[in-house]
Amino acid sequence: MKEQKIKKTRKKVSKPSSATVVAENSKKPSSLSKDNEEKAAEAVGNLIAVVRIAGEVEIKKEIVNTLYRLRLRRKYSCTLIDSKNMGLMGMLNKVRHQVAFGEIDEEMLVRLLNARGQKVEKASLLDKSNENSKKAAKAVNYEEAASELMNGKTLTELGFKGFFRLHPPRKGIKSKQIYPKGVLGNHKKDINKLLERML
């Protein structure tokens, strides 16, 4: 009788089915990189301007390599990133403590192209002593180029170099602190104010 009672009191423990495991896993983030990309893209528009602030002292090799892949090889160089490109957003998140970034507006983009844009041809648009450069500069419609960039085109697709060389920020910056106390990180739309000081 005692054995029968013991058998009745035992509860069956069923293993979770594969379908249950899949359902539970689907509730978790699919990958950490996706979360990181969303953090970098938070409150940022379609076209992001990224400016390298850090030099190369005391920076990990993997960070330097990522900066190179983003074409940010020198201090105060600038590039443009489409926020819909998750691969680039992942790289931006990785270097977010070495750069300043935010949503560039079309008006500032026109000024940036005009002041710092360089065509891939041997003669630079910024070389005003060169007659060929003057003719090439007149032929470029910066408003049209800016509009195409805002709509998903890249600098290289439009015949420009994939980066800008900017002037060190006028009036100085706090290069070791996070925005808004310093200059590093996500400026959102205020990135246009920083770019204006670097044209």
What are the salient characteristics of this protein?
five-stranded mixed β-sheet; 41% helix; 199 residues; Ribosomal Protein L30, Chain: A; globular; 12% strand; single chain; alpha+beta; disordered N terminus
Task: Give a structural overview.
There is one protein chain. With 199 residues, this protein is of the alpha+beta class. It has a domain at 31-117 and 161-196: 2-Layer Sandwich (Ribosomal Protein L30, Chain: A), CATH 3.30.1390. The chain has nine helices and five strands, in the order H-H-H-E-H-E-H-E-H-H-H-E-E-H. The chain has helices at residues 2-9, 18-27, 32-41, 61-69, 86-94, 106-116, 131-139, 142-150, 191-196, and strands spanning 47-52, 77-82, 99-103, 164-165, 185-188. It has a five-stranded mixed sheet, sandwiched between helices. Helix 3 (32-41) packs across helix 5. The protein is globular and about 45 Å long. Mean pLDDT is 79; it is low at 1-9, 11-16, 18-39 and 122-126.
